[in-house]
TrEMBL record:
CDD domains: Isoamyl_acetate_hydrolase_like. Pfam families: Lipase_GDSL. GO terms for molecular function: hydrolase activity, acting on ester bonds. This is Carboxylic ester hydrolase. Belongs to the 'GDSL' lipolytic enzyme family. Keywords: Hydrolase. It comes from the Eukaryota. The keyword Hydrolase applies. InterPro entries: GDSL, Iah1-like, SGNH_hydro_sf.
């Protein structure tokens, strides 16, 4: 069986297999080496993710994933006194939930690489123009400051647990015009934002020795098949 990489997260993960999405790009990148498995749950926070993690990720004891990305926090960071309050999870609980999810994965599959991804930055103007539900308050239901607190918490979990982390909250803000270039509605990713995250994930996997150069190709490449004796390429 081909090895696999599992993407576990909220709507930014669920949307990742859309046209130009970061998950779709990963699937294309590793098209002959790895199956990229989508486990994205729109609207979920880390509390709900912890509840479903074992079922969502499955057992796969005989074929553990090479890597799992864990990408929650954007919904946890919803403000507790605004329209998305029911998604809010306090930072201390968010930390606990992330640790529990990662610990469960590593306990089941010790050799699996677990990659944490911080919530993205928030373009508050974009959220006001694209309000959640029927909110007419004129206030964003989440702020960049709040998202930053959860990003820092995510990084602290990664450091404490010895896991790689992709800090997109900080890295995206280093790009001029990130608010509209990388985010389509103040939160979710544009095509450029998806490309940005894809490249970050590929680089992180590479640092963990998971790349096209290190992973075996599934079945002989066409270039390896001898036109004179084609079946020779398929000998075990």
């Amino acid at each position: 069986m081909r090895p696999k990489i599992v993407l576990f997260g909220d709507s930014i993960t669920e949307e990742s297999f859309s046209d130009g999405g970061w998950g779709a790009n990963l699937a294309h990148q590793f098209s002959r080496t790895v199956d990229v498995v989508l486990r994205g749950y729109s609207g979920y926070n880390s509390r709900w993710a912890l509840r479903i993690a074992d079922e969502a990720l499955g057992t796969a004891d005989n074929n553990p994933p090479l890597a799992v990305t864990v990408f929650f926090g954007a919904n946890d960071a919803s403000l507790s006194d605004r329209s998305s309050a029911f998604q809010h999870v306090p930072v201390p609980e968010y930390v606990h939930n992330l640790k529990a999810i990662c610990s469960s994965i590593k306990k089941r599959w010790p050799k699996t690489v677990v990659i944490l991804i911080t919530p993205p930055p928030i373009d508050e103007d974009g959220r006001v123009k694209n309000p959640y539900g029927e909110d007419t308050s004129g206030l964003p239901e989440r702020t960049n400051e709040s998202a930053g607190a959860y990003a820092k918490a995510c990084i602290s979990v990664a450091k404490e647990s010895g896991l790689p982390v992709i800090d997109i909250w900080s890295k995206m803000q280093q790009i001029s015009g990130w608010e509209k270039n990388l985010l389509r509605d103040g939160l979710h990713l544009t095509a450029s934002g998806n490309r940005f995250l894809f490249e970050e994930v590929v680089e992180t996997l590479r640092k963990e020795s998971l790349s096209l150069e290190t992973l075996p190709t599934d079945q002989p490449l066409f270039s390896e098949i001898d036109p004179v004796d084609p079946l020779n390429a398929f000998k075990n």
